[in-house]
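User: Hey, quick favor. My workstation is busy. Could you predict this chain's structure for me?
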Amino acid sequence: MAYRLDPLFLGLGIVVCDILAWRLIRAERQRLRLFVRLAIFALLTIVLFRGGMVPLDAAPWPDQPVRHFLAQALEITWWLLGARVLAALSGALFLPKAWQGERLFQDVLGALIFVAAAVAAVAYVLELPVSGLLATSGALAIIVGLAIQSTLSDVFSGLVLNTTQPYHLGDLVSIDGVDGKVLEINWRATHLLSAQGNLIVIPNNATARAKITNFSRPSELHGVNVIIEVTPEARPQLILDALERAIRGCRVALPKPEPSVMVKRMNTNAIEYEMTCYVASLASKATAANQLFDLAYRHLASAGIDLRSLATTYSKPPSASDRRLRLLSTVNIFQELDADELSRLAKRLSRHEYESGQEVVASTDITDYLLLVDAGVLSVTANRGGERVETARLGPGDTFGEFGVLAGIPMQVTIEAITSVVLYRLEKTDLTPILQARPEVGSRMCNLLSQRKESNDTLAKMRVAPEAQKTSILQWLQAKMHALHDMA
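Assistant: No problem, here it is.
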């Protein structure tokens, strides 16, 4: 039983416990691992010093080769365990939090500490001359360095990347056109997870020389760029004004930083215009781009600019009568009308202009007319819990006033001009003959109105009559329209 109290036996037992703890404690429990390392290192220190095996001196028992060898092994192990504990403490206490999750800095710091511990163990425990070892290791380092120049380039490039921190773990980035999420930054490369679920490994040397776009910084801010090619025969200022109205009609775009429109390139075939705005999330980029293309098409058409091929002759902006016809032909509810009916209806339209910030329709107004947006941008706001909340934006080709025309009920929303606006007004008395002669137009209006979520919610709150509770929103709207316009 006396051998159990032997310092060599106790020291070897502590080393075995350290190995078992390292294998059993999971890697994500960093604090527990660090605490166990400190406890085991402190216990090994006490056992060695009390047993006469001081790591700062040569091992005792030179006349007993086996015990002497085991004592040397324990003292060298003490230096290595101490280096491991010091590396873990230094990483946790002195490295910035942004660096603690990245392996490269921790590996470099740990390597430096372990090299110093190995040199100290050779000098104190084995009592070998360190100067000769350092000279030999220096020459060996030069030879190895020449052999692994590419790898060293990746290592130092990785140090630069970790120091400048163009991206962190979890960031969405684009490195020289390769998009993905940063999974790992190690000695040699940066690992990205692509949108297709593929792992992309980019050497640090290539990353350091590449163009890096970080979509995650600044947080909650992502740019959207859309390029439109327009005929060079149209005046650029006219196009810029139309595209500025288009970009202001995009609800997904953030007000700050302000969106912008600029001439990108000009030649004899076309002029390129770039629309730039910012959205709050990466998922909104596609939605914003799609809205910008649609709005650009509508506002350019409103300005009389067609997106055409070069073989097509450029046409000047339409006249007033042609403009009314063109507007009616773009409105969804009038798609069923033929050319003669559109011409008769166009003569009934009256033109109205509003300045930016001017209220067009109040929430309590009962509109006995239909308004068609010819140019400009309008904001639709509703009262939600005592606050005005924007629910939609209107642009060329949109209509409003259907509440009053179809059902004779208040608007329930306020419509205000964001830019200078040109509207065409169609009176209810002028619309009644169309609805009586072409019931499909009225059905189309009822369908569009019942499909709008805001309108659906508003109408649902207003249906208080018992007979209305038993019908759908669409049926209720159709019944109100038939009664209001004397339709069979």
